[in-house]
Amino acid sequence: MGTFDALLQGFAVAFTPVNLLWSLLGVTLGTAIGVLPGIGPALTIALLLPVTYHLDPTAAFIIFGGIYYGAMYGSSTTSILLNVPGETGSIVTAIDGHMMAKKGRAAAALATAAIGSFVAGTLATVGLSFVSPIMVKIALLFGPAEYFSLMLLAFVTVSALLGSSILRGMTSLFIGLAIGLIGIDTQTGQARFTFGLLPLLDGVDVVVVAVGIFALGEAFHVAFREARRPEEISSVTGSLWMSREDWSRSWKPWLRGTVLGFPLGALPAGGTEIPTFLSYLIEKRLSKRPQEFGQGAIEAVAGPEAANNAAVAGVLVPLLSFGLPTSATAAILLAAFQQYGIQPGPLLFTSNSALVWALIASLYLGNIMLLVLNLPLVGLWAKLLLIPRPMLYGGIMVLSMLGVYSLKNSVFDLWLLVGIGGVGFLMRQFEYPVAPLVVGLILGPMAEEQFRRAYAIAQGDMSVFVTHPISLVLLILTAACVIGPAILKRRKVATP
């Protein structure tokens, strides 16, 4: 079956009344989550994992996809009106977006962000539709040795590029790897790191870790630092329609942001931060009014917001094709797949094609819904910023505990949740990135399995990892990611 035919079947599933309602629920919830600072799609999806446990997988992933896309839309609202990015990908938007709001042009800034997000999201989803099947063909060339080397590359890139230092990223990764080793070894039948506790024989549930690290950890962190809401919220005044000049200054940045964001989002640890910063720099260099940047240039909102949303679709390419998460939200989505006993990778498009193509089709529909929701209802979303922090995060803690307890009705899981939440709190306090921990937890057991399989096939010959060309290239890239930054740092120090 061709890509176009598969996509049409996906639309047939996504267009059912029930799935349209799930998509609307996802994008609405995602937009609300994006508006609230500090609450991102990773936290929200982690909270919903226990709730959606008994839901049909297709419906669950349509909701998750809507939340993921919606959070990117909503985060621009708080960046422009409050100068507080709801997501890291909207940090750049806040620079000129809030200056536009201060000058009474909040409506134009919100409009170019929403329309740019729609254009970039739609074009990037087209890219996802046609690039993913190609990536699947490449993934079929991979054996156990290649998969192990690829996962090693993912470990290093996520750890090295996220957080303030490689050491902190690696520390977070190894904590996740250690948690992933808990339980019974599937090959030898031996218990590992269970400390005599029977509930740990089955290992630590990924959902418990995800909810603890993202939801409870964030709630503890906010409560400790007593985050204060900025005093002034810029009001949304005037028509939401952009002027002719605004359109002429926005459409090229939308397209450039899309072209930049999609491939960078697909790279390991590419995320949304790097493409948005690059988009800002490119637009400033190409602009006829570079002096306006930092003072309220509409191009500085249009380009980064397009790059932000295009990168979101790019992140889904390695997740669906290789089963590799390149961001915190992608790691939680991988945990969601595993919750349903589904393993993303090259076989996903054949074994669960209906689910994959319904998810991709729902992203097209979700983009349309998001445009309709964001343009006329911006004033309503802005009122969510008035929710008191204690009530918001108190509710998150209650939902976290109820959700985890509903999985197995286990009090032990609740104590484990609180303990992991404490770890998440300490990591935030000392600025350790949490994404490598989740990646290590999920990919660690898979990497161990692929290593053992490759080792057994090669009959104990460790050279199998360097004699296979693809594996060798991946290992060289891994080494470059570790050694490269250190060499560049020394050169900068040596240069007078």
Automatic annotation (TrEMBL):
InterPro entries linked: DUF112_TM
Biological classification of the source: Bacteria, Pseudomonadati, Pseudomonadota, Alphaproteobacteria, Rhodospirillales
Name recorded for this polypeptide: Tripartite tricarboxylate transporter permease
All residue ranges annotated as the DUF112 domain in the record: 20-438
Keyword Transmembrane recorded: yes
Key words, A-Z: Membrane, Transmembrane, Transmembrane helix
Record organism: Dongia rigui
Highest taxon in the source lineage: Bacteria
Bilayer-crossing regions: 6-25, 32-53, 59-85, 106-128, 134-158, 165-184, 204-224, 315-337, 357-378, 390-407, 470-488
Keyword Acetylation among record annotations: no
